[in-house]
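Tutorial handout. Part one gives the primary structure; part two gives the three-dimensional structure as tokens.
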Amino acid sequence: MQALTLLAASVAHEIGNPLNALHIHLQLMERALKRLKLDLAEVSAAAGPGQPVSGAKASPPPLGADNVEKLEKYLQVSKGEITRLDYIVTQFLQAIRPTVPQFQQASVNDVVQATLDLLRPEIDNRGLTVQAKLGRQLPLCRIDPNQIKQALLNLIKNAIQAMTKGGVLTLQTESGEDGVWLTVADTGRGISQEDVTRIFEPFYTTKQRGSGLGLMIVQRIIRDHDGRIEVQSHAGRGTTFRVWLPLHERPPRLLEARHD
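Part two.
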């Protein structure tokens, strides 16, 4: 109950911020629309009664153009906040309602590419560079592509949020012994050694805006795949996460027969 209470309080706090931003920007859009209506009314009046609004008289004044630009900006911010809300709710549901992996033989490279395509607008908007070093002829893995995509989504989001303009995000895949290695590295601010030991704890976060659930979910997904995750970080020099995923299901461990 205590854990659920903390989780609910954390999610409620996180949801409050984007909702407040949406409320403010909807008000701004409402004001801009009112100004646009006034501008159109002025243009129509200048054209005269019964006269079509055309030629030079149809050109809206600079104020109208400014309001259109403002509306576009407010709309983009609002769409971003809605995406953020969806991410928070998804994290919450995954934390309290984990699903059993639906395993299949799939390509880790395909999962990496699909996740990268999903986050490309945010990466470009932040002015970051992506270095994709995907291994050739990578063997198929026994994974749940949707769950691995969610784990990778969390890792990449953490990486891009840790960097400023000019940062470099590196995604790498390579074959290993009986498995595949997946690496997500950034050139961001890094994590202190004290924080590294706690980053997989629920509700623990070093970000101003974060629920502390993302890496916990990543670790659980990797464990459910019989894999493992490693992290290396140095303050001011970036962070590297390495995930190992097995190619095959591990055989069940049998109890040794007792000889009395």
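Part three, for discussion. Helices lie at 2-47, 62-96, 108-125, 145-161, 193-196, 214-224. The beta strands are 104-106, 129-134, 141-143, 168-176, 179-185, 228-234, 238-246.
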